[in-house]
Write a structure and sequence with these properties.
Layout (H helix, E strand, L loop, with lengths): L2 H4 L1 E4 L2 E4 L2 E4 L13 E5 L8 E6 L4 E7 L2 E6 L4 E6 L4 E5 L3 E6 L6 E6 L8 E2 L2 H8 L10
Antiparallel strand pairs: 1-9, 2-3, 4-11, 5-10, 5-12, 6-9, 6-11, 7-8, 7-10
Length: 144
């Protein structure tokens, strides 16, 4: 099984009644980690790409709270693009995954639930370095 296969859409519980819909996310329940940080992307100008980095330990869960966008995930061996456009679906992204977020619709809002607090040491900002580590070719990092 490829690490890309672990990037998956998870359908959240959706409780509907005449007053509207309600979805619930509890860390360790609907998603496979406890939530340590929450942030969101909004007012992204047309044609802009967000993210463009990888993480060593951080896991994420992304939801299109409004509008839509595409998430490109890359494990250093292959890539896939996932389109998010429903607030009751989210994308689970495991650790050691490069990600890019693009193609935001007008009014698109991306909610991100993260497994760790912000730590600049957890980031890869250089794709070649990320790919070398992911493939076990980097002298400072053992193979995953």
């Amino acid at each position: 099984m490829s690490l890309l296969d672990e990037c998956k859409i998870i359908q959240l519980p959706k409780h509907s009644d005449p007053r509207g819909n309600l979805s619930v996310i509890e860390g360790g329940q609907q998603i496979p980690f406890d939530i340590k940080r929450v942030y969101y992307l909004y007012d992204v100008p047309g044609g802009s790409t967000r993210a463009g980095h990888g993480h060593i330990e951080l896991q994420q869960f992304m939801i299109a709270m409004s509008g839509s966008f595409d998430v490109i995930v890359d494990d250093g061996f292959g890539r896939k693009k996932i389109h998010l456009n429903r607030s009751y679906y989210g994308l689970y992204i495991p650790k050691m995954m490069w990600r890019e977020v693009e193609n935001f619709s007008s009014g698109g809002v991306c909610l991100v639930l993260a497994s760790t607090n912000y730590d600049p040491k957890d980031y890869f900002h250089d794709y070649d370095e990320f790919q070398a580590v992911a493939r076990g070719q980097h002298p400072d990092h053992p193979p995953r």
